[in-house]
Amino acid sequence: MDLTDVSVALLSAVLHAGWNAAVKASRNPAQVMTAQMVLGALLVVPALFWSGLPSLASCGWIAASTVMNVLTVSALLRAYELGGFGLVYPVVRSLAVLMVVPLAAAMTGERLATAGLCGILVISLALAVLAWDAARGQGITRAAMAWTLAAGVGTAAYVMCDAQGVRLSGSPWAYGFVVSITNAAAMAWRQRRAGPPWAQVATHWTLALPIAAAAMGSYLLILWVWSHAPIAPAAALRDTSAIFAVLIAVFWLKEPFTRTRIAAVLLAAAAVPLLRFG
Q1: Are 42 and 188 in contact (CB under 8 A)?
Q2: Nearest to 238 by CA among 151, 156, 134
């Protein structure tokens, strides 16, 4: 990966950490998630006149990504209820990082150098350290772990769907715009018992609009990287979002910067040059 790809993937991670933390901190995460996805779809509809539609070859991957995304969001929201953000989020991202490596090898023939593999393992270790720190003194139920594992598997699955689809689409922007619209429609259907989507948007739009902008930016940036760069290292860099979530908590929410958190941040920082040259 060249320096531009690394920088863009890390920026995607920062935005991803910010919007996930904002959704989790809201009073009604499921409705805020729905509102931000609907607003994101509305934001990109005019952009389709600029980008055009993705190629037909990517349509199957768009459908698969949409299904996996709504299943993953459902599992993730349930895991948050049972296990807490600080524990669930890093475990999900760590599982996804580890699973994308064999999936990328099987589906695309992607093979990483030793440095790249070490970088992915170091990031997974950093995320595991965060999860361990959150779990200390806090038991986790079997149900919470089951939903967390499901969310991790789903995350890896939609990463591979998007990475495959964007390479066939002809344009990462067109692909991202269409998937954002299909994801919003699927999420609105999932949340239909909470009321029509426009009612949820009307209730939460002041919070959901900046979240939608951050989520859209994060998604389009990583799609651009996946359109030409190795999938697994880019996914691993994006999953440093859990580390950035810690930094947001420390510097914005004034949470303590413990030794364990410092160790996780240093591990993630050490992984970046490994992925850059691996």
Answers
A1: no
A2: 156
- 3-state SS assignment for residue 196: coil
- pLDDT for 139-173, tens place per residue? 677 888 899 999 999 999 999 999 999 999 999 99
Taking the mean position of all CA atoms in its chain, how far away is CA 35?
17
**Helix locations, the chain, DSSP H:** 3-25, 29-44, 48-51, 59-83, 85-108, 114-135, 142-169, 172-190, 197-226, 231-238, 241-251, 259-277
Instruction: Give the pLDDT confidence of 76-122 residue by residue, as tens digits.
Output: 888 888 877 777 888 888 888 888 988 988 888 888 888 888 888 98
Contacts 24+ apart (CB under 8 A), 66-71: 66/179, 66/182, 66/183, 66/186, 67/186, 68/154, 68/157, 68/158, 68/161, 69/154, 69/158, 69/179, 69/183, 69/186, 70/183, 70/186, 70/187, 70/189, 70/190, 71/150, 71/154
Closest CA to 54 of 161, 164, 173, 222: 173
- Evaluate whether 231 touches 275 at the Cβ level (below 8 Å): no
Predicted TM-score (pTM) of the model is: 0.88
Distance CA 227, CA 66 (A): 18
